Amino acid sequence: MSESVSDKADIISEVQKRYEEASGHTSQWRSRARDDLRFFHADAYNHAQWDDAVYQARAGTFGGSPRPCLTINKTAQHVFQVENEARQSQMGVKVNATGFGSMAEAADAIEGIIRHIEYQSNAQQNAYACAIQGQVRTGLGWFHVVTDYVPGVDTFDQDFFIKSVPNSLSVYFDPSAREPDHSDQNWAMIVEEMDRSEFNKLYPGHEDVARDPLSGLQSDSDWVSDNTVRMATYYRRSEKKDTLWSVPPMPELNFQGGMMRQSVMPEALVVVCRENKAPSRPVTSHMVDKYVIAGNAVVAQGETVFSLIPLIPVVGIETRATEGNDADYAGLVRALIDPQRMFNYTASAYVESVALQTKAPWLASAEAIEGYTNEWSQANTSNAAVLPYNAIGEDGQPIPVPTRIEPPSGSTGHMQGMQSADQWMQMVTGQYQAEMGAPGNEKSGIAIQQRQRQSDTANYHYTDNQGMALRYLGRLLIDAIPRVYDTQRAVQSLGMDGAQTGVIVDPGMQTSAQVALPPGPDGQEQAPPQGMPLEKQRQIEGAILAINPTIGRFDVEADVGPAFATRKQDAFNALTQVIQAAPALMGQIGDLVFQSADFPLADEIADRLKPASDDPRLGQAQQTIQQLQAQIGQLTQQLKDKQAEQQHTVVKDAMAADTNQYKAETDRMAAIGSIDPDALRVLVHQLVSEAMHNGEKPPEDGPIPAVQDGPPGPLPRLPSSNPPGGKIHAANPVTGAVEA
Question: What is the pTM of this model?
């Protein structure tokens, strides 16, 4: 629900009061900052490095001839030395997991998300560079964090953007902030001009703001004008008090208990906690509200996702008055003003002293140049090959040869003054000739680095304060990311080497980080191999990391140092020296050597040299082989069990057949004993016939031998190749008998 008219009037009154408070707090700095900027941008046309009174006197404003007023702007180069060193550095945020369920992989992913936010905002070239310019030139720079819809996509998803603040004087901030990085500031505002046509397009219905300046300001305060509208983007930080309860477990409700804030608890649960005297303590959280004000109208307002003011300062040198609450900020320019003016004064005086001297004239007697006056009068302006003169006078005596007087020379005092001024500029900045590019006596790379480090140490407070601003940014984004990425969403994560990877942000996950694999050939979701570290799982082809930024705690530190390309080159040089000293290590770290190289095909060479044990696909293959071997073992055992079962069945069936046959024979023999003799003879005859026919039943139409009564006669003769009556031992020989 929108605020009432009285609430809006209170907001406007509050903005007016705080605007005046901030203006008074920084009035001295604002005046000096403007002078510092003019001094920095001085050139031969604006003469901003000269004191006004001195310049007017030398320029002949009050009478007299004009005198040289030179501007040799050495200040800009000293300032650029610090600014460009920062441009060459890699500014970023490093995120660390600090417990309560947070994981290092989640911290790396959040760090990559922040780096992607910087990339899509072009923060290095825009926001950070602009803030560093304000820091070094005027003592204070700013950048601005906002949220907006993702550009170029039809979606309601929002993302973070880091915006530049081109004019650091347009920011008015809380004078009660005491932390060096101003992270405890409770309000801040940007006051800037907007073209009226653009204002009418962005905020329709407020065309009359020009007739109503901000309440309390003078009508000629230029808060609004005919062609522009002065806009105030005001951020206010407010506290929200709450109570943290340690809710006891409730098995009947399947609730394990835990820490909960009273603002999200049902009233009945609060009553239960009070009745059980559960531990509790007051807690305070912060939220930031945003108001856009033009004239006497609040044209936009709302609650942000931030808990810190999203206007982040980059401080140069901060000085707080011992009495009162005024503060001053200074950059590198402030210390260079006097030595720079001295250099300009002495340079101008040196040129003036030389200019006032005549050119080197000729010294000659009148008799010597008589008749050649024209030639000698043009001697200083022409390039005559010969200057004739009279060598003998009228009296016959020789005339001295014309000679030239010594040429004009500059004042040695002025020259020494210029040298002294230059040395003083080096002293106040800590940047000596070697750091400014002049050749020195250093020969080795280590000596040159040590000399460069001296300059870096002298101005390290600028680098350290840049790191403070980055830590402020990291805390701001880590706290706000779960509020913007509040549903399952795929985002981009940028590595230090510039490689883009996808990350899934899922607030519903039960862990801080896990790996999701692509579906398998059967379309089913694959599970990561058991026992494989998360780092190796992420290297599996098609794997994507999923994180839950709401689980655990994360802390930040600034990463301000050489750019990644510079560090990569340093690593390559160091590894190359190691390999030269110990060539045997090439087999162990060869892939790392080429990973740090920048020449073409270096990555391909590194992949070929990488040990097979580092390939995550090998671990996955080994896991698959182990699974297949286990399955083969199970199938082999099942086959053995089946074969044993089949053999047991065959033996069992054979034993059953033998038992049945034995039973049949027994029954048959019993039956034989119970039949009469005649029937028995027929049965015996049948058995003999079957035996003679190898167990087969004789044909039914064949002759049936007669059955004799009484004792049986001799058995039929067996087949033999020996004829009866031959020379054998027996009357009825068998095959194979031996002759006598």
Answer: 0.70
The H or E element that residue 299 is part of is strand 297-303
Location of structure tokens 């069990």:
641
Extract the tokens encoding 721. Answer: 């190749």
φ/ψ region of 64 (left if φ > 0, alpha if ψ in -120 to 50, else beta) reads left
Q: Work out the angle at residue 275's Cα, subtended by the Cα atoms of residues 274 and 278, and round it to the nearest 5 degrees.
A: 50
How far is it, in rounded angstroms, from Cα 369 to Cα 16? 85
The Cα–Cα gap between 547 and 528 comes to 16
The DSSP result for 429-473, as a single string, is HT--TTTTT---S--SHHHHHHHHHHHHHHTHHHHHHHHHHHHHH
Which two structure tokens, joined as six digits, stand for 532?
């494989």
**167-170 contacts: CB < 8 A, separation 24 or more?**
167/192, 168/33, 168/131, 168/134, 168/138, 168/140, 168/141, 168/142, 169/30, 169/33, 169/34, 169/138
Decide if 255 contacts 272 (C-beta within 8 A). no
Length of the chain in residues, anyone? 740
Task: Read off the pLDDT of residues 145-181 as tens digits, 9 standing for 90 and up.
Answer: 999 988 888 888 899 999 999 999 999 999 999 899 9
Strand pairing class (297-303; 280-294): antiparallel
Alpha-carbon gap, residue 110 to 556, rounded angstroms: 11
Look up tokens 């509790």; give the residue.
Answer: 280
Are the CB atoms for 581 and 574 separated by under 8 Å?
no
Q: Are 360 and 404 in contact (CB under 8 A)?
A: yes
Q: What are the tokens at 612?
A: 């097979």
- For residue 689, what pLDDT is reported? 66
Give Cβ neighbours of residue 447 (< 8 Å, ≥ 6 apart).
none
Give CA–CA dist 568/598, Å, rounded: 8
Q: How far is CA 412 from its chain centroid?
A: 57
Report the distance separating Cα 694 and Cα 718, nearest Å. Answer: 14
User: What is the 3-class SS of 243-285, one letter each residue?
Assistant: EEEEECCEHHHCECCEEEEHHHCCHHHHHHHHHCCCCEEEEEE
What's the gap between Cα 22 and its chain centre? 36
Query: Which token pair is 184?
Result: 């405890």
d(CA 243, CA 283): 6
Cβ-contact 728, 737 below 8 angstroms: yes
Q: How many degrees, rounded to 5, is the angle at CA 474 between CA 244 and CA 476?
A: 50
The pairing of strands 228-247 and 280-294 is: antiparallel
pLDDT of residue 419 exceeding 90, the answer is no
Helices vs. strands in the chain: H and E counts, helices first? 20, 19
Q: Which two tokens mark 229? A: 């509208």
